[in-house]
Amino acid sequence: MPDFAAPIARLIDELKRLPGIGQKTAQRLAFHLLRVTPEEALALADAIRDAKEKIRECSVCNNLTDTDPCLYCSSPTRNRKTICVVEEPHNILAVEKTRQYSGLYHVLGGALSPLQGVGPEQLKIKSLIERLKGGALEEIIICTNPTAEGEATAVYLSKLIKPLGVRVTRIGVGIPVGSDLEYADEVTMLKALEGRRDL
Ligand SMILES: [Zn+2]
Fold first, then answer.
1. Backbone angles phi, psi at 169, to 5 degrees
2. Nearest to 190, CA basis, from 178, 180, 179, 175
3. Residue 1 pLDDT > 60, yes or no?
4. How many angstroms separate the alpha carbon of residue 105 from the centre of ligand 1?
């Protein structure tokens, strides 16, 4: 790395930790932040601090939220007979974009991946099973990513949940295999939801 003043080097190093940010982009962002007014640059720092201080996991569904329970879990208008299971909180946005789903959510915090040391214990599966015990649930829609890990997680959950008498479905085709639901547009996601099949 060129000889940057220590505070600049530190800023570049921090920016490089962000996903998708390499050395060049980090440098460009760092010099941009140094060029704008202190207020503009510190607004970013404040937003990060504010979000980190106020955002936590919903104690029911593990979605990221500033209220507990989150807006979905506490909503009086959501359909409480269906839970859509996703890997990460941002996957909820992909489902919400369709405007056709009004049930609840459960965030697993990842997908099963034995090679990376992610087993059932590392995911929020126990709390999902606890939520099924009230008896009001009719369907679990497994909305994990269409990757090997996402599919393995879907199969695992279906074997666990079906004996409890709850219908388990998996979102349908349309989303490219190996991709993240994050990148599915509304129409694709809607078709995937509508085309869900029993597991
Ligand atoms: Zn919640």
1. -120, 160
2. 175
3. no
4. 7
Whole-number Å distance between alpha carbons of 57 and 184: 24
- For residue 26, what are the domain limits? 6-54
Report whether the peptide linkage leading into residue 114 is cis, meaning its omega lies within 30 degrees of zero.
no
| Cα–ligand 1 centroid distance for 65 (angstroms) | 8
Of 27-31, 34-38, 66-70, 186-190, give the lowest mean pLDDT range. 186-190
Residue 2 banded pLDDT, cuts 50, 70, 90: low
Write the CATH number for 191. 3.40.1360.10
What is the predicted pLDDT for the residue at 174? 67
pLDDT at 3: 84
Residues 61 and 47 in one domain: no
How close is the Cα of 71 to the center of ligand 1, in Å? 7
Look at residue 39 in the predicted model and tell me its pLDDT. Answer: 97
Residues listed for the chain: 199
17 C-alpha to ligand 1 centroid (Å): 29
Cβ neighbours of residue 155 under 8 Å, at least 6 residues apart? 199
CA dist., res. 83 & res. 97, Å (int):
16
Assess if residue 103 is contained within a domain: yes
Looking up tokens 């034995």 gives 114
State pLDDT tens for residues 14-56.
999 999 999 999 999 999 999 999 999 999 999 999 999 999 9
Burial class (CB in 10 A: 0-12, 13-18, 19+), 158: middle
